[in-house]
From TrEMBL:
It comes from Marinoscillum furvescens DSM 4134. The lineage of its organism: Bacteria, Pseudomonadati, Bacteroidota, Cytophagia, Cytophagales. This is RNA polymerase sigma-70 factor (ECF subfamily). GO terms for biological process: DNA-templated transcription initiation. Residues 17-76 form the RNA polymerase sigma-70 region domain. Pfam families: Sigma70_r2, Sigma70_r4_2. One of its GO terms (molecular function) is sigma factor activity. Belongs to the sigma-70 factor family. ECF subfamily. CDD domains: Sigma70_r4 (cd06171). The keyword Transcription applies. Residues 104-156 form the RNA polymerase sigma factor 70 region 4 type domain. InterPro entries: RNA_pol_sigma-70-like, RNA_pol_sigma-70_dom, RNA_pol_sigma70_r2, RNA_pol_sigma70_r4_t2, RNA_pol_sigma_r2, RNA_pol_sigma_r3/r4-like, WH-like_DNA-bd_sf.
């Protein structure tokens, strides 16, 4: 298979995952798109090496992660404040208001996780990567991934139970 065909077969199908991952790290759509484009350029320039890569998807996600961290450092990235990021729109129905409220609580709960736990949780639950792929992307052992994911899930569950019981978190 030619390097260009490998790129089309293994990398192009995961560009949406790369974007979602970049967005979860950068919290800005335009910056996430730029970061993914930079990643695709890097991968394209290395396409001749694609036949040596055991797991192209994990490799692409790792490049995305590194690119986002480099981007953040170079641009002295500042996170969007909770107020700007979590303000729901003017929904008219009760259901939409409840959904916006749940999204707000979930965003706040996820913010309580350590950056490592948040990233592992995102890769597993949103991007649906395997434990092994997450370990490869983040450069961690398989047991570290499992422990951090368990701790993240436990914290999320405890915070959601607090909200259900008392209507408050933290």
């Amino acid at each position: 298979m030619s390097p260009s065909k490998r790129f089309e077969t293994y990398i192009l199908p995961v560009t949406d995952k790369m974007y979602r991952y970049a967005y979860s790290l950068l919290k800005d759509g335009a910056q996430a798109q730029d970061a993914v484009q930079e990643c695709l350029v890097k991968i394209w320039s290395s396409r001749a090496k694609l036949h040596e890569i055991k797991n192209p998807e994990a490799w692409a996600m790792r490049i995305t992660r590194n690119q986002c961290y480099d981007w953040s450092k170079a641009n002295r990235f500042q996170l969007i404040s909770d107020k700007e990021h979590n303000t729901p729109g003017n929904e008219s129905s009760d259901l939409q208001t409840l959904m916006a409220d749940q999204q707000l609580w979930l965003t706040r709960i996820l913010a309580l996780l350590s950056p490592k736990q948040h990233e592992i949780y995102h890769l597993r639950e949103v991007e649906e990567l395997s434990y092994q792929d997450i370990a490869e992307v983040m450069g961690l052992s398989l047991s570290e991934v499992k422990v951090n994911l368990h701790r993240a899930r436990t914290k999320i569950k405890a915070e959601l139970e607090k909200i259900e019981a008392y209507g408050v978190a933290n």
